[in-house]
Fold this protein.
Amino acid sequence: MKKIFRILLWVLIGAAFIGTFVFLYLNSKPKEVKYELVKPTMGAVERTAVLTGTIEPRDEIEIKPQISGIITKINVEAGEMVSVGDVIAEIKVIPDAQQLSSAENRLNVAQINLRDVESRHQRNTKLYERKVIAREEYETTLAELNRAKEEVVSARDAVDIVRKGVSQYNASESNTQVRATTAGLVLNVPVKVGSSVIQSNTFNDGTTIATVADMNNLIFKGQVDETEVGSLAVGMPMTITVGALPDFSASATIEYISPKGTLTSGANTFEIKAALNVKEGVNLRAGYSANASVALNHTDNVLRVAESVVEFAGDSTFVYCLVDSVPQQSFKRTPITTGVSDGINIEVKSGITAKNMLRGQEIKSE
């Protein structure tokens, strides 16, 4: 019985040894390599550049107050349409102590002068009625009286302007009412009721009450790399797509290319602007991220091959043309002259014809 077990054990060991030897032998044999054959085709090749940027209104107008004070009322919200002259906000004036004191002193002086002129004119009136003085002297004090009255009115109005920001002559156009200077969509209202605001003048930009823009006049603003900016020109067409609107696309025309580059993240880029042609009914929002595709080179009805089958060696390019397929594939390294490439297909100007079969992807036979 033990003898039978020993025989079986040796048989199993022998079988395992032979199997291992056969496995190693089969794996050591070189596998047959075949190549997928690619045929040149006729068609168009277009080299395009894709620029990233945003959709923006051509002009964003910042509405600023003409007087400093506290916001007491805001009449609009972001997203509302306004017309020229619409009241956007109202301001309560916080008068400047020095200006108010000066205006009140002017009013006091004007009132003192008015009382003095009135007294003199009353005396001259009585004397003129008695024909003691000439008419010319009477008319002189009358004119002085009228001027003194006007000065009091003007001084009182100056006090009202400093104290309240309102003039009796143009109450409807008061500086305390901030009005829209252009028609359009309100993009932003960065202040709230109770916020302090500063007037806009030659020394200060002032506080922005609201930003208004015409959303029917939009542009694409983006950046182009210095390696491609030389291929662009004002007037070239572009196609704009917006990531937030998968089904949206619009045409655009380049209208500005910056003459000076900006160093961004180690790359030199140039700003570019293009005017959008948007169909009616399309609702675009300011600040949408967008991509612009522009054709840099285009050829029609040319011989082309997949760029993956082309071998680049320095300034030369080659393809491998099929010479024979029996008993195995054999190829000839053939120089070609290439043209426009779109990254997938490349134009072939000379070296092969549409009848050639070229070596493509490698396929290993088991």
